[in-house]
Write a sequence for this structure.
């Protein structure tokens, strides 16, 4: 499992002055509201600054550009999500068997991706590092650790990538919009996929290795 201490996704400077922390909180709250009301594609740093009551220079200095602000929005939710699977109650948190935790984690990740799909889609378009850095790196470490605990004979890193690929925001959007599947059907598909990995023939590894 990942370390017990929560890992910052963005590397935001900390600790910070009280006034800087208040400004950041206002900016994040306003940006979250605007995304919920209009979608992430219409997020404007100028409007965020105006509604948060701070200078636009403050927003640009703190977040750099819209992509930086999008990362910060994800970071807020990521910290809570990390707390749930690192130290929260089972089955997502410690205390349940690894196969049960894996299923619960993937289901929770689907819920989170659907809830923030506009932000994830914007991030996917704006920054390549959004795909396999930040949250993905932490999720991969966690999933690989659960797989290694449940099935030490398989290539846990490979199968962690394979499972997490199915929780890609674009694929989920396609499943919901184009395939007409419900969120619960997507989760059930992931249940079956993770079960297939956990019950794969022993000794088999990617590339045909025995």
């Amino acid at each position: 499992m990942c370390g017990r201490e929560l890992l910052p996704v963005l590397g935001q400077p900390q600790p910070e002055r009280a006034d800087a922390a208040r400004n950041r909180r206002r900016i994040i709250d306003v940006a979250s509201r605007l995304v919920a009301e209009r979608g992430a594609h219409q997020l404007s740093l100028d409007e965020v600054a105006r509604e948060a009551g701070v200078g636009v220079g403050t927003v640009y200095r703190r977040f750099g550009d819209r992509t930086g602000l999008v990362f910060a929005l994800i970071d807020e939710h990521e910290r809570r999500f990390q707390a749930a699977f690192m130290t929260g109650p089972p089955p997502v948190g410690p205390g349940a068997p690894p196969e049960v935790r894996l299923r619960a984690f993937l289901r929770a990740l689907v819920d989170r991706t659907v809830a923030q799909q506009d932000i994830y889609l914007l991030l996917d378009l704006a920054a390549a590092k959004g795909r396999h850095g930040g949250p993905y790196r932490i999720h991969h470490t966690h999933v690989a650790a659960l797989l290694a605990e449940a099935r030490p004979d398989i290539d846990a890193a490979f199968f962690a990538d394979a499972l997490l690929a199915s929780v890609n925001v674009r694929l989920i959007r396609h499943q919901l919009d184009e395939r007409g599947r419900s969120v619960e059907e997507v989760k059930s598909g992931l249940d079956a996929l993770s079960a297939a990995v956990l019950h794969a023939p022993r000794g088999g590894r990617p590339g045909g290795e025995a």
